[in-house]
Amino acid sequence: MGTLLNFRNLYVDSFNECKPGFAVTILKAYSVFCGILLAMAVYAFMYRVITGFDF
């Protein structure tokens, strides 16, 4: 749990002094998008491993 809080603090602190505001919004949206893509890739890989897909 401490590791997740540390990552959260790093994420929040990295955008504190950023200017202009629209760039911060775009970067935050992009990081969420990348997180979703990474989660989908891990899910697809685990699904193939569990179902016995031949690589």
What labels describe this entry?
single chain, 55 residues, mainly alpha, 0% strand
Summarize the structure.
InterPro entries: DUF6747 (IPR046635). This protein is mainly α.
Describe, in plain words, how this protein is organized in 3D.
This protein has 55 residues and is mainly α. It has one domain. 80% of the residues lie in helices and 0% in strands. The chain has two helices and no strands. The radius of gyration is 16 Å and the shape is elongated. The model has no long low-confidence stretch (mean pLDDT 88).
Ordered list of secondary-structure elements with their pairings:
Layout: H1 2-14, H2 21-51
Domain module count: 1
The ordered H/E elements are HH
- Find the count of extended strands (DSSP E, 2+ residues): 0
Tally of helical runs: 2
Report the β-strand fraction as a percent range: under 5%
Which sheet architecture does the biggest sheet show? none
CA radius of gyration is 16 Å
Helix share bin: over 70%
Question: What distance separates the N and C termini?
Answer: 34 Å
**What number is the mean pLDDT?**
88
Poorly predicted tracts of residues: none
Give the class from helix and strand content and strand pairing.
mainly alpha
Overall, the morphology is elongated
